[in-house]
Design a protein that fits this description.
Layout (H helix, E strand, L loop, with lengths): L3 H37 L8 H8 L3 H7 L3 H23 L8 H18 L1 H6 L14 H24 L7 H20 L9 H22 L10 H16 L1
Length: 248
């Protein structure tokens, strides 16, 4: 039988865990309510704490207890938005050996363009202030770009490591490509929605084509030539053979 003190300590720890989970649930309610209101209102209209509390089904005082101040709440909303965006992109950012380079990239580009087109107010809101846990000068656009670029780099470098290919010199290109994508998407969102504005699919395919030419161009510099219909597994096998020949 455990001493009474041990049992009380265990109950305190368990109670503390439940309280943290309770607070986490409350915070998620508040953040989801804030995001919903941001999407419903004009970007120039400030959403009040009272509106957020009512939308979350909570008292206004509960919102104040969960966050240090309004600035803290806003920074956590931006963090919440970034996490959702990155999660959607990362879910399709998989180097499937059975797919072609173009198919893989097009899946990613469609996701990026669709998310931005469906959430233009959140996309804009993310640039208007600080993001929780990051430096004051970093916007959600920059943070999201770096997160996606790092995920892409890890995918590329893990494959190249297995193949024994040194791709470190190309790391800046990965970040540059992600920056290009965000630049094109930002311009797309700012263009008037008229008959001359390209649709989402056209933008996604334009970005995919740009990524392909970048990949094919660097491969050509190494004396390798790929077709768009080449599956990633086949392309990687060719790269492996090329690396082996250079070692010999």
């Amino acid at each position: 039988m455990k001493p009474p003190g041990t049992m009380r300590s265990h109950r305190r720890r368990a109670g503390g865990q439940r309280w943290r989970e309770h607070n986490s649930t409350r915070q998620t309610q508040i953040l989801e309510a804030a995001v919903a209101l941001l999407e419903e209102n004009d970007p120039n209209v400030e959403v009040s704490i009272q509106q957020i509390a009512e939308r979350a089904g909570l008292a206004r005082s509960v919102v104040y207890r969960q966050f240090d101040n309004r600035e803290d709440l806003d920074s956590r909303v931006r963090e919440f938005v970034v996490e959702r965006y990155v999660a959607e992109v990362e879910a399709v950012l998989v180097l499937d050996p059975a797919k072609t380079f173009e198919e893989i990239v097009l899946d990613v580009m469609r996701t990026v363009v669709r998310w931005a087109a469906e959430h233009p107010k959140l996309y804009q809101y993310g640039q208007s202030g600080t993001v929780h846990g990051h430096a004051a000068g970093e916007s959600s656009l920059t943070i999201g770009r770096h997160r996606v670029a790092e995920t892409l780099w890890q995918q590329v470098s893990s494959w190249s490591g297995i193949l024994g290919i040194d791709v470190l010199p190309y790391r800046p290109v990965v970040y540059g490509m992600v920056g290009l994508v965000e630049g094109v998407v930002t311009e797309y969102l700012g263009a008037p929605a008229d008959a001359e504005r390209p649709d989402q699919e056209a933008i996604a395919r334009l970005l995919t084509s740009s990524a392909w030419h970048l990949f094919a161009g660097h491969a050509a510099d190494r004396g390798l030539h790929f077709e768009r219909s080449t599956a990633m597994g086949e392309a990687m096998a060719e790269l492996l053979a090329d690396a082996a020949n250079k070692k010999d």
